[in-house]
Amino acid sequence: MIFNSFEFLFLFLPGVLLTYYLARRYISHWTALSLLAAASFFFYAWWDVSRAPWHELDGWTFESLIRSLWFIRHVLLLLGSVIINHIVARLMRRWGNQPLLAVGIIFNLSLLGFFKYADFLAGNINALTGLDLPELGLGLPLAISFFSFQQISYLVDVARRKTEPGRFFAHALFVSFFPHIVAGPLIQHHQIASQFNDTTRKDDIWDNLGVGLSLFAIGLAKKVLIAESIEPYASSLFAMAERGDTPGLVAAWLGATAYALQIFFDFSGYSDMALGLARCLGFRLPVNFNGPYKSASVVEFWRRWHITLSHFLRDHLYIPLGGNRHGETRRSINLMATMLLGGLWHGAAWTFVIWGGLHGLGLTVNHYWAKWGPKGWFDGHRRIIAIGLTFAFTTIAWVFFRAESWTGAGRILAGMFGMSGLGLEGVSGELVIWVAFGLGLVWSLPDTPELFADVLDEQTLKDAQIKPKPGPRWRFTHWAAIGAAVLLFLSVLNAWKTSEFIYYTF
């Protein structure tokens, strides 16, 4: 189930909101959380259930039962992950941390590696050795990259005594909570556990719905009205490159920028919707996205793009490797290793590894520039130049992220560096307008978390380092309500043609 689908908008979401608030008011807080956990597992299962060939089952036979379990294998995998990690966390509390923590981390990484990287590894071994190792073709379980990292974070929090294992269904809800399970944010257990355990919390329903639905409306509009409108132009460029054509300079840059804008509004839209859906239910998730294309350096970019993943990689990989504690050379090696693995986390392909490596190189150069380069580079008018250079670097790196093959990426990069002439083939007035419109929105308006800074709590804004400052702000007004309603109406009208979010494939 995706946020922009009709079944989610008109059935699942209204039903969950009504059930949750009624259960909290008339039954109990824990009953409401249990129902919310069940709804989240249903939300996750729908991805497979809606695609399964149920018509092939032959009545109520044992064989049909086994086949039906195969149709919902991914939700069973998620449930098994929750059960095993909860047992490990409980045993850690009873018997000690280190050996069991290692067991838990190995289990989660093995689960991720088996489903996501087994075929990738087999293919590379076959290419290098000439062997014919079989590829399993199991298919990638939805959100396995996210919930595996979430489980590791949970175990580390328990080991460091930042949090308690808690009740089983609260742990299940922490992992499966439908606003964030598919594409983040990657929340730490202690960030949400206190909210789950707060039985005295009062439901300010109209405040929650007012802020939450407004956030959701903006995010839905970003996805449906902007990202989906730009997508055909970006796909056209990459499809042309895969067919063997090398685009000209203008076409290559416009197409690559179109993809940079598509993924921006797609992921920004998801992040807004996740924040809004959680707020509708009275929960506060951390901001995960805050105007990354306004960054004046690659370091700043990763403080604004997928903020919670950046923090996870920093806390669980970069710092354990040694961080910046052993000199600049070691820091550069640690940065490169972290970003290479971060790229591989996004997808089992060498193009993702190259994308991560480019960002590792960019981070390393940034650190050396900050120390040895001219002072004041990121201030005043120079900051505008730095923002432009950072955006150009990021756009070039996105080519590897999006391309289906090395050769396709190479042709686009050849075009971007002028090796195929000026070339206007594939350039249309609509493409130019959409790119100009998208860049105008990105660089002239505050991103959603900044716009809502006055009505979001300090914990939500903390990781994004957003502080109230002068400028446009969202307020509880009739005009704000009308604006949100108009965005929802226009988005719903166009929701029939939309696809899943880009990060759903990770």
Automatic annotation (TrEMBL):
It is a multi-pass membrane protein. Keywords: Acyltransferase, Alginate biosynthesis, Cell membrane, Membrane, Transferase, Transmembrane, Transmembrane helix. Pathway: Glycan biosynthesis; alginate biosynthesis. One of its GO terms (molecular function) is acyltransferase activity. One of its GO terms (cellular component) is plasma membrane. InterPro entries: Ac/AlaTfrase_AlgI/DltB, AlgI, MB_O-acyltransferase, MBOAT_fam. GO terms for biological process: alginic acid biosynthetic process. Its main location: membrane. The keyword Flavoprotein does not apply. Pfam families: MBOAT. PANTHER family: ACYLTRANSFERASE, TEICHOIC ACID D-ALANYLTRANSFERASE. Belongs to the membrane-bound acyltransferase family. This is Probable alginate O-acetylase AlgI. It comes from Maricaulis maris (strain MCS10).
